[in-house]
């Protein structure tokens, strides 16, 4: 919302002020905020810079063709492209000077100057480190039409231009921003034509400038594009509301901008999302969904969809008799702004109420409101005392930004669990549970039991500090026990974590000794040593990075096994922690941690076992079978698996079938065991069937496992490349899937590592990779996939325990 000029910025009859208003947006700049978007952009930008550095000197044919096509344009265009290239520097310097001298935006001038200087210095340092020891690919003919001997890396002027324009972007009107972005595009063409840099260098310059601007914004804060009161008043007028005294609410919530206004019918609460806030809203929701699991039932990609969803949930709740802020209007107004206008509920928050004010009658009225809301299939998603208001007519529910009008039983149970915990903090456990039972009944309490876990609560109820976390944990434990007793059931037990013992550690060390069998395949130890010491360190770094990235893929796969939302960040951290658990307690440790994590997120034990033990492995097997078939079709090599030990497969399968038959017979003919096990099996079967019926969950389960298998093959491929070897990727993928599957069937602790190592080296040698390289690559692959990740995995385990995710 930057095209409307505020009267405080540009007054009539003042040409300079009018010009300043058209160039620099009048959007309210205070308070300056450190935005989630800046973190995401910075990480993404510097990741791209790292990839371009790794790609330096290895230009693909398509890149060289593009460069030669532009660089080979007629010399008659020289003056035009020189003018464009010079204009880029003028624009960057001009923005700083105009901001400081004409617009008198001293803070902006400081940010632009820092962004420009830092990006220029960073480009020069990167150029000296990366390009100083190498040269441009000899396969490209470079015509350098500017005062330098050869193309540079990265393109420093492009980095400065992008940094300055990106740093100024929150302050500029939309036309000025678009003009700057057009100049960046023209400067890229000019740089390629003048021979200043190759396409890879241009990408590096753009990403570097982008990342530096994000760092500057995060370091000093930046305006989040809040609309001004005049702009909101104009938008309300577009929607047919004559409002006055429009002003910001203090403090501001996380979800957009909220203002209060006066209208003929009484005060109004206006939630408004402007054009410049859209990106921040989307990034913030994605970040919270990734890290905290509370980004709302879905990520809204448009402003109008966001406010319409909230209005729909409010209208459904109001129609069911729930006391909520009445909706006045929801729609678009002004220069592309989305607004939700409601009548605020007067009163105090239940979170601020004294225990006397929060009496049994009040609690009964609160749970009656919840019952009506859930009866309308509405779930609040953050239903705690901070979003309940005690009005003169009774309690009401507010803040429906994350609500959904098509709630599942799981989402409604999450509401109950959240409100139980928050009311217990005010009135005590017994009164909170008794009120919930009176208001919702025994079954609703029972459904909420698995969700009475600290990790399953919204971010609103998270606390900081060891003592406060211990207090919250104890309160939730007491609450879970009291709720289970009131519901006439048992509190769901948590999966026991297996502690590391001396025997476990010795077993882990034994897996290292087993790899010694590989050395017998090398005729000359000196040859192996020479191969290892000649490794390309950059390929090893790539292998390690991909190895860590596999945790994200397996986290996505696990997210597809359960109906509840899981935080991607913490789920990925769980997968990393399993690197330590599986090494210290083979086969059992990782599975136990995964099941306990799912329980902490609100899954019952049977569903957690089905998801974290059976379904995830079934999805992995299916994905790998499909990938193996594709790899065999696409591989140009004929694969021979004669050197891979496969003699125990048939025996293992027979033993597994026999054990399953014995277990089925015991369950069938022993009544006591049947009564205890059959309900759990039914719950597990229901969980697996629901997952199979959901296209989204199937896509996450199979897609995550497939990406994971491809990534592990890429790790091995990078290890082979690090020692100077090469092999067709599809051949390597087929080999890796087959050998890892065989190795996983070996029931001897440490045996799967030995089988995998020996089998992989033999298969690689059979595929044409020299023996010394095969052995060195497999040893390195075991190191970067199993042993090095176990070190940060130990820290991840402790962090998850500390924050009660395990």
Please describe what this structure looks like.
The chain is mainly alpha-helical and 806 residues long. The chain has 29 helices and eight strands. The chain has helices at 15-23, 36-55, 61-71, 78-102, 106-131, 156-168, 174-193, 199-220, 229-238, 278-291, 303-319, 360-375, 409-427, 429-440, 442-448, 466-487, 502-514, 525-533, 537-559, 568-584, 588-600, 605-634, 649-669, 671-693, 695-722, 729-744, 751-766, 771-787, 790-802; strands at residues 244-248, 257-263, 266-273, 327-333, 337-342, 348-349, 388-391, 394-397. A five-stranded antiparallel β-sheet has the order 1-2-3-5-4, with helices on both faces. It has a three-stranded antiparallel β-sheet with strand order 6-7-8. A hairpin with a 2-residue loop joins strand 7 and strand 8 (394-397). Helix 4 packs antiparallel against helix 7, helix 5 packs antiparallel against helix 6 and helix 14 (429-440) packs across helix 15. The radius of gyration is 31 Å and the shape is flat. The protein starts with 14 loop residues before the first helix and ends with a helix. The model is unreliable at 1-21, 133-139, 498-524 and 747-751 (pLDDT under 50).
């Amino acid at each position: 919302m930057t095209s409307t000029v505020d009267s405080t910025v540009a007054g009539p009859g003042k040409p300079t002020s009018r010009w300043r208003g058209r160039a620099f947006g009048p959007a309210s700049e205070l308070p300056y905020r450190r935005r989630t978007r800046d973190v995401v952009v910075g990480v993404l930008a510097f990741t791209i810079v790292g990839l371009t550095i790794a790609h330096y000197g290895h230009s693909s044919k398509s890149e060289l063709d593009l460069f030669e096509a532009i660089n080979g344009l007629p010399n008659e265009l020289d003056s035009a492209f020189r003018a464009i290239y010079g204009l880029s520097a003028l624009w960057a310097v001009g923005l700083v000077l105009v901001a400081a001298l004409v617009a008198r935006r001293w803070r902006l001038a400081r940010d632009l100057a820092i962004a420009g200087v830092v990006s220029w210095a960073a480009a020069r340092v990167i150029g000296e480190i990366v390009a100083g020891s190498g040269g441009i690919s000899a396969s490209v003919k470079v015509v350098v039409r500017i005062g330098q001997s050869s193309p540079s890396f990265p393109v420093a002027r492009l980095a400065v231009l992008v940094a300055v324009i990106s740093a100024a972007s929150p302050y500029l009107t939309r036309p000025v921003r678009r003009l700057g972005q057009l100049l960046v595009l023209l400067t890229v063409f000019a740089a390629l034509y003048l021979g200043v840099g190759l396409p890879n260098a241009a990408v590096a310059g753009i990403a570097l400038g982008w990342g530096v601007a994000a760092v500057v914004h995060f370091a000093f804060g930046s305006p989040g594009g809040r609309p001004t009161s005049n702009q909101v008043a104009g938008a309300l007028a577009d929607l047919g509301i004559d409002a006055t005294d429009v002003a910001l609410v203090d403090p501001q919530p996380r979800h957009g901008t909220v203002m209060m206004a006066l209208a003929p019918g009484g005060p109004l609460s206006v939630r408004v999302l402007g054009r410049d806030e859209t990106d921040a809203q989307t990034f913030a929701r994605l970040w919270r969904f990734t890290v905290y699991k509370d980004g709302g039932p879905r990520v809204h990609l448009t402003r109008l969809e966001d406010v319409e969803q909230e209005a729909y949930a409010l209208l459904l709740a109001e129609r069911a008799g729930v006391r909520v802020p009445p909706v006045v209007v929801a729609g678009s107004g002004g220069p592309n702004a989305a607004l939700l206008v409601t009548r605020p509920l007067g009163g105090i928050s239940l979170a601020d109420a004294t225990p006397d004010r929060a009496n049994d009658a009040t609690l009964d009225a609160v749970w009656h409101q919840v019952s009506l809301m859930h009866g309308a299939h509405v779930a609040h998603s953050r239903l705690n005392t901070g979003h309940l208001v005690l009005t003169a007519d009774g309690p009401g529910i507010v803040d429906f930004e994350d609500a959904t009008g098509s709630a599942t039983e799981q989402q409604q149970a999450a509401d109950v669990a959240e409100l139980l915990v928050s009311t217990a903090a005010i009135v005590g456990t017994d009164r909170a549970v008794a009120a919930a039972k009176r208001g919702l009944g025994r079954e609703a309490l029972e459904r909420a039991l698995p969700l009475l876990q600290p990790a399953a609560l919204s971010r609103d109820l998270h606390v900081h500090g060891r003592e406060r976390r211990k207090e919250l944990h104890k309160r939730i434990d007491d609450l879970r026990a009291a709720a289970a007793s009131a519901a006439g059931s048992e509190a769901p037990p948590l999966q026991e974590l297996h502690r590391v013992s001396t025997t476990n550690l010795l077993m882990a060390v034994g897996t290292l000794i087993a790899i010694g069998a590989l050395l017998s395949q090398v005729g000359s130890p000196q040859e192996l040593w020479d191969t290892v010491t000649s490794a390309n360190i950059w390929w090893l770094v790539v292998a390690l990075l991909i190895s860590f990235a596999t945790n994200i893929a397996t986290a996505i796969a696990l997210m597809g096994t359960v109906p509840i939302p899981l935080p991607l960040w913490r789920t990925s951290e769980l997968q990393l922690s399993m690197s330590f658990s599986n090494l210290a307690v083979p086969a059992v440790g990782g599975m136990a941690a995964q099941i306990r994590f799912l329980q902490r997120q609100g899954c019952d034990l049977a569903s957690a076992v089905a998801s974290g033990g059976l379904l995830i492995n079934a999805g992995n097997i299916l994905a790998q079978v499909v990938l193996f078939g594709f790899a065999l079709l696409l591989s140009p090599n004929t694969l021979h698996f004669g050197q891979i030990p496969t003699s125990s497969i048939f025996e293992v399968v027979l033993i597994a079938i026999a054990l399953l038959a014995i277990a089925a017979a015991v369950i069938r003919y022993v009544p006591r065991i049947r009564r205890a096990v059959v309900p759990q099996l039914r719950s597990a079967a229901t969980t697996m069937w629901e997952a199979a019926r959901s296209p989204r969950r199937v896509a996450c389960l199979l897609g995550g496992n497939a990406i994971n298998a491809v990534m592990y093959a890429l790790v091995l491929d990078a290890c082979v490349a690090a020692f100077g070897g090469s092999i067709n990727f599809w051949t390597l993928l087929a080999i890796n899937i087959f050998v890892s599957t065989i190795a996983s069937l070996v029931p001897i602790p440490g045996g799967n590592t030995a089988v995998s190592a020996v089998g992989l080296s033999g298969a690689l040698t059979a595929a044409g990779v020299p023996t010394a390289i095969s052995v060195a690559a497999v040893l390195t692959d075991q190191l970067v996939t199993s042993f090095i990740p176990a070190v940060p995995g130990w820290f991840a385990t402790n962090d998850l325990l500390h924050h009660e995710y395990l």
